[in-house]
């Protein structure tokens, strides 16, 4: 199986003195040692979080669109195409995502356009549904999460 590392090269279009996020994405193949264009996201945005699902697909959640933070979620499949998934329960940009050992994805924090969030939610790829979970003690945005052998 060829491994594809997907990196979002977020480009901005200058229109009427405002910056608009792009839906363009590019992938890098270690086998080819070059960047190539890939399918477009279903919704243009920047500042989304991403997590690799246990089956090799890539989940891209939230972000900021032309009108502000969005709840949109895309999944980049092993076929090289994006498909829409169930939206998050709360629109959030600059949040953090991490794949949990059981295959679900935790998204936490971010900015909803009114300020930093302390809320969190979990995506279950087997049901294509998001569910709210406990809040963080401190609201934050632009942070990162990582799994370790002992938890977070």
Polypeptide structure, described:
By secondary structure, the protein is mostly beta strands. The protein is built from no helices and 15 strands. Strands 6-7-10-11 form a 4-stranded antiparallel β-sheet, with no helix packed on it. The radius of gyration is 15 Å and the shape is globular. The two termini are 30 Å apart. 33% of the residues are buried. The N terminus is likely disordered.
Q: How far apart, in Å, are the first and last alpha carbons? A: 30 Å
| DSSP summary: helix tally | 0
- Low-pLDDT stretches: 1-21
Name the helicity range: under 10%
Q: Give the SSE order as H and E letters.
A: EEEEEEEEEEEEEEE
Rounded to an integer in angstroms, the radius of gyration calculated over CA atoms is: 15 Å
Mean pLDDT: 82
Oligomer state of the chains in this structure: single chain
- Beta percentage is 35-45%
Annotate the secondary structure layout:
Layout lengths: L3 E4 L4 E4 L2 E4 L4 E4 L4 E4 L11 E4 L5 E4 L2 E2 L2 E2 L3 E4 L5 E4 L10 E4 L5 E4 L11 E5 L4 E5 L19
